[in-house]
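G., before I forget:
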Amino acid sequence: MHTFSEENYLRAIYRLSLDAKAKISPTSIAEELNNNPASVVDMLKKLTDKKLISYDKKKGAKLTDKGTKTAIEVVRKHRLWEVFLLEKLGYGWEEIHDIAEQLEHIHNDELADRLDKFLGFPDYDPHGDPIPKANGKIATTYKTMLLEVEPGNSCQVAAVKDTSVAFLHYLEKLGVGIGTRIKIVEKIAFDGSMVIQVGKADKINVSKKFGESILVG
Amino acid sequence: MHTFSEENYLRAIYRLSLDAKAKISPTSIAEELNNNPASVVDMLKKLTDKKLISYDKKKGAKLTDKGTKTAIEVVRKHRLWEVFLLEKLGYGWEEIHDIAEQLEHIHNDELADRLDKFLGFPDYDPHGDPIPKANGKIATTYKTMLLEVEPGNSCQVAAVKDTSVAFLHYLEKLGVGIGTRIKIVEKIAFDGSMVIQVGKADKINVSKKFGESILVG
DNA sequence: ATAATTTATTAGGCATGCCTAATTTTTTAT
DNA sequence: ATAAAAAATTAGGCATGCCTAATAAATTAT
């Protein structure tokens, strides 16, 4: 059994607060963390007492300014460590998350800033997510066509330009939606098609039109 | 209040097993960790159950092979991270220990080896302690006269050659013993004396003879 | 050898964070 | 609007690791 720190909960709530207009309920947090709603309710009380969140059955959980600050610091550390693990230690894209999940909880006032400097102040992590800056500001995710992503890189679907039923059905079949991660394996020069990998599924070939219809960030 | 993991205990026992022929008692471990002997007794039971140590009131605690392996891995990670913090992130000598104490518990099979490679397979950490190799082997600490240490570096007293009562009394007054860390602040060329700092005490000037009488490693 | 001191151990409790199994509340479907 | 389903909460417990206070055992000093 895993045991979660306050920071884990704050980060989970932060994540949920981005995706959705949906209210952040004990159940949704429990799903995010893979634990029990009853445990979540316990923790929501503690976080409320510490003024890190506000919670109301109707409105769900919301980070206070203090809670947001902490959550963003954790996210900042997480993403910086991911860059470190990939670029400096040579880990693969898929291995870094779990390690960064541990590293994000290392406490030291200067650590994030020193790491940031050491890594050359990267703006995005290897998953394409923006790295919060020292002042807490988070860059708006820069959106490009999937087509423009270089082979070897990964990205996250931010928007879909072609809203035809046929296309959306196709995406659904592939398991692609907003937020889905796509890795560009190869680009085929002669027809502009590309070989991509959706999550951990098999590699597939998609057309140039496909690459132009998806915005990634 | 701090709470200690198994790894913390194993590392403490490992440390104690190096210094001393003295038996490793609950009290000595509690002093090492700054906690309560009663807590230590609790944990010794658990570690014994897991076959990480053997414990006997008479003989004290001893690491089993399994326990030694774990302890050495933790030490390896600790010292590698110290090198990283000092060399790559530019932390000062005195700041790295506490952070490395957190980093040493990050778990990932390849982490130590990747970090080791990234750092160029260093043999010693910034405190002069040898970094255990991937196979668990630990270099015998290379001993030199204190006199030969370059200004700016720190070292740890490994042996004392002059055993005269006068000298030992002098060392005692300075708080210098086996294991004491000394930082060389400056060397005075004309008479071979040196300015040193013992732990966090004030800087003091010691003679050339002093520098020749202490072996550091 | 006995007394005094120090060390080790046990007993009993506290806090944290988890769980399952009720129970209550809210939402959804008929 | 009522019944059924889903979600939130509470109650009661477990495990971990810590503590203090009391007791037992071992060491040291007289």
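Residues 144-216 of chain B form a domain with the SH3 type barrels. fold (CATH 2.30.30.90). Residues 65-88 of chain B form the longest helix (24 residues).

More on Monday.
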